[in-house]
Amino acid sequence: MNSQRDIPLPGKEGVDACFTLFSALLLLLGVDTIRKVVELATDWSNGHASQILVVPFVSGWLIWLKRKTLFENPRPSVLPGGVVVALGVSLFVFAKTSAVGLSANDVLSLLTGSLIVLWLGGFLMAYGPAALRAALFPLLFLFSAVPIPSALLDRLIALLQAGSAEMAYRLIKLFGVPVYREGFVFAMPDVVIEVAPACSGIRSAIAIFISGLIAGHVFLRSLWRKAFLLTVAIPVLFFKNAVRIAVLSVLAVHWDKRVLTSSLHTDGGVVFFLLGLCLLYPVLVVLVKSEKKLSETQELDARTSPPVSGGR
């Protein structure tokens, strides 16, 4: 009986050609979905999908950095990859035929997710589980290009809205401005503002979280340090948005109420996004240094520890 080792495997060129053809067919299958996702990402008014255009390029860059270890020695894995492909097909068919009652955004989320699952299945079929594990982060990072489902998006916006309002209230009081708060409405001398869902800062929050995710992958090795960086990012998301609300409120009270409708309000998100990155950067530096110091200590211990004898 022939074992699996006796089954002839295609060479690297054949595997690359098959995977390229599979990817091209997948693009043709999903051309309408991809068009809708691009339209969503380029619609600046939605506030939660602009990162989608960047995600494939980041994933491609991270995969390109590992191309020698990923693609030089492919080990096709047809059965596991076929299972993943079957899952992707099932999700795609469900989204096309049976997603009754779902919003257009949620159907688009399902379709986009199914295309990514299909592509991951093709990757596994072509290059095998070892390559999949080596490229796990950039491959899973592709799911950041899936439009956020409506229910999850509403919860995220509500959380950011509540956290930002709470911090903004405390900052406004810290600035010495008399303020009365009822829920998301702040009453100040001659100025009343509401921290509406549009003020949640969801766009910059997603951008900061994704930036922390990439920075942790590129600069850190230990899982707990990566998780710590992302954990710190959460209060940073609240704080940078609260600073924006508080600054606009204080300027409206002490300077000019028109600042609430100025470009600083409507287009100033980039400034406070950079503020968030500046707050995260020192945390990343400390984590990188601590990891480097630990690695150096371990190397020194390994060099100075006496060899273990193999005698009786």
Give structural notes.
This protein is mainly alpha-helical. It folds into two domains: 4-145, no CATH class; 152-304, no CATH class. Helix content is 70%, strand content 4%. It has a three-stranded antiparallel β-sheet, with helices on one face. Strand 1 and strand 2 (185-188) form a beta hairpin. Helix 5 runs antiparallel to helix 6 and helix 10 packs antiparallel against helix 12.
Supply the helix-strand structural class: mainly alpha
Query: How would you write the strand order of the largest sheet?
Result: 1-2-3
Mean pLDDT: 85
Number of strands: 3
Envelope shape: flat
- Write down the domain tally: 2
Helix content: 55-70%
Quick summary:
This protein is mostly helical. It has helices at about 10-30, 30-40, 55-65, 65-70, 80-95, 105-135, 135-140, 150-175, 200-220, 225-255, 265, 270-305; strands at about 180, 185-190, 190-195. Helix content is about 70%, strand content about 5%.
Task: Please name the defining characteristics of this protein.
312 residues; mainly alpha; 12 helices; 3 strands; disordered N terminus
Q: Layout of SSEs?
A:
Elements: H1 12-29, H2 31-41, H3 55-65, H4 67-71, H5 78-97, H6 104-134, H7 136-141, H8 150-174, E1 180-182, E2 185-188, E3 191-194, H9 202-219, H10 223-254, H11 263-266, H12 269-304
Antiparallel strand pairs: 1-2, 2-3
Helix pairs in contact: 1-6, 5-6, 8-10, 9-10, 9-12, 10-12
